[in-house]
Amino acid sequence: MSVSTGTTTAMLDFDRDHLWHPYSSMTRPGPAYPVESAAGVRIRLRVGDRSVEVVDAMASWWCAIHGYAVPELDAALIDQLSRMGHVMFGGLTHEPAVALGRRLVDLAPAGLDRVFLADSGSVSVEVAMKMAWQARPGRTRMFTVRGGYHGDTFGAMSVCDPEGGMHAMYTGTLPRHLFADRPPAAGAPLDDWKAATTGLFETHADEIAAVIVEPVLQGAGGMHVYDVDALRHLATLARAHGALLILDEIASGLWRTGTLWACERAGVVPDILCTGKALTGGYLTLAAVLTTREVAAAVDASDAGAMMHGPTFMANPLACAVAAASLDLLAGHDNAANITRVEAALQRGLAPAEELPTVVDVRTLGAVGVIELDRPVDVTAVTAAALDRGVWVRPFRNLVYTMPPYVSTDDDLDQITTALVGAVRETTR
Hints:
This protein folds into 2 domains: 5-62 and 333-427, Aspartate Aminotransferase, domain 1; 71-331, Type I PLP-dependent aspartate aminotransferase-like (Major domain) (Aspartate Aminotransferase, domain 2, 3-Layer(aba) Sandwich), CATH 3.40.640. α5 (121-135) crosses α9 (293-300). The two termini are 39 Å apart. The chain contains 13 helices and 16 strands. β8 (217-218) and β9 (224-225) form a beta hairpin. It is an alpha/beta fold. 48% of the residues are buried. The strands form 4 sheets. A 7-stranded mixed beta sheet has the order 4-12-11-10-7-5-6, sandwiched between helices.
């Protein structure tokens, strides 16, 4: 149902004057487009005095993998709501949490059979880091690589890129962890990087509780795809020196990069794995931390005697129910073949961008397609140009990219890629 122009104007006035949006100025806000509805891979927006339907190239920041208004997910929420919307998880349990836990244990890399259900991706990273510190008492530092992004909460920020990342302004107030150089791109020589990384790690080995990285694909830190052997090397260093390996699969997992977990590409199994974003199909906020019985036992052997974290909305029944339904939907598809199809369409559709003088790289990995520019993106201009072509995108830094819903058809993907290439051509002449 559409809304009147007057109602829309009043809503936008209040939004502009009172509501903060992600990574935006409160005093100098950019444009915000009102959403009227969403179904399939399309969202209906108000653009000026017009109601327009556009393909969502972002899957709502990578989580709406099945699209919108999904009958199976709607039904799971309605069914669960008929029993209870929420109940505390302290001292209580419920079927949706147990059912989701079973599915996650079945899907997880071998040995990760202990599950902590968290509120969001950032919170799952906080929990993973706290697990490592409790399991490795006396070791106070994390080891990671530059170019990473792990979330916006305090601990998560401390392992994001300390200079080029979005949290650089907090340098000096965050704990000081150890940062190796960003791993080379896939196929690039690794010997020098391995030697420098090994030297830094061995110098501080007794301080390091865990290595924490995004496997294979660094997401919001720059959509950087790095060599799988670099991940193997980091895992080897951790194992050799008694540190844990934490893999942040919040963006890369659940088939986004072409395999169920990105770490499968390297044949690496972590001690702790974080998953989120796509977990509920974009319906509600939920994440999970999976670990081994050995890590769980070490946490329990710490001075606290328990995992010292407990979100108010931990294991929310609605979120657990819709997450289980989302995983069931995934289980009903040949995901490897489908993501291969999406990747091929992205490669084919984005290839013309390679000829544009302002483009320095075009890359794809699974259901991820990236156009990297030689300059910062004019977000407002690129967004408007893509909307003119019937597509919603949200670029950042010097990247115009897409992470579309997995259910996007070849026609949808053609529209997305044509819009991205056209928007770059129009706005960077």
